[in-house]
């Protein structure tokens, strides 16, 4: 029997599913992912038409895009721009805790 190691993309996917479980409690569902060059996981709230994308960008940094559908268009908020590009987030757990404590209003 061969033993395989998980790729970084696969590890990222597992960590996002694990640490972002709280999104399910507020109406979000997993709606897509990619474990390629820039892995991401996408969540959607069909009731509010909101979308969240958690992206593992180049240089080992995490970013989150919050997208809200408004009456006359779409508003996208880039979390990296909100919290400061000088303070990169490199842990999925830290990112989930940060959103739960300080940025939950963007998600709801």
Poorly predicted residue ranges: none
Helix percentage = 25-40%
Number of helices: 5
Average residue-wise pLDDT: 85
Strand segment count: 5
Globally, the shape reads globular
Beta-strand content estimate:
25-35%
Instruction: Please trace the helix and strand order, writing H or E for each element.
Output: HHEEEEEHHH
Task: Give an overview of the whole structure.
With 108 residues, the chain is of the alpha+beta class. Helix content is 33%, strand content 33%. The protein has five helices and five strands; from the N terminus they run H-H-E-E-E-E-E-H-H-H. Strands 1-2-3-4-5 form a five-stranded antiparallel beta sheet. Helix 1 (8-19) packs parallel to helix 4.
Which helices and strands occur, and which strands form pairs?
Blueprint: H1 8-19, H2 22-25, E1 29-34, E2 40-45, E3 50-57, E4 61-70, E5 73-78, H3 79-83, H4 92-102, H5 104-107
Antiparallel strand pairs: 1-2, 2-3, 3-4, 4-5
Q: In a few lines, what is going on in this structure?
A:
The protein is an alpha+beta fold and 108 residues long. It has 5 helices and 5 strands, in the order ααβββββααα.
Which properties best describe this structure?
108 residues, alpha+beta, five-stranded antiparallel sheet, 5 helices, 5 strands, 33% helix, globular
